[in-house]
Design brief:
By secondary structure, the protein is α+β, with helices and mostly antiparallel strands. The protein has two helices and six strands. The chain has a six-stranded antiparallel sheet with strand order 1-6-2-3-4-5. A hairpin with a 6-residue loop joins strand 3 and strand 4. The N and C termini lie close together (7 Å).
């Protein structure tokens, strides 16, 4: 099942399928390690809903919700 990263609930895990944007946001995400095939877990969401704290490749990373909506994820179930 495909789902956008900004739609994840804390504790949910998925694999990056693709990144929609082809501009600065895509380059920034690639530089941070968010690439197709990378497994991502949403750790927590800030109290006001932005940013999101994700775990990937052994480290925690904060991404803005508008960046996360560009990441299409593949999730089980």
């Amino acid at each position: 099942m495909k789902k956008l990263l900004n739609e994840f609930a804390p504790g949910e895990i998925g694999v990056v399928a693709k990144i929609e944007n082809c501009g600065k946001i895509k380059r920034r995400l690639y530089d941070m390690g968010v690439t197709p095939g990378a497994e991502i877990k949403l750790v927590k969401v800030a109290p006001l809903g932005d940013p999101l704290c994700i775990m990937l490749r052994g480290y925690e990373l904060s991404v803005r919700r508008d960046e996360a909506k560009e990441v299409t994820m593949e999730v089980e179930g």
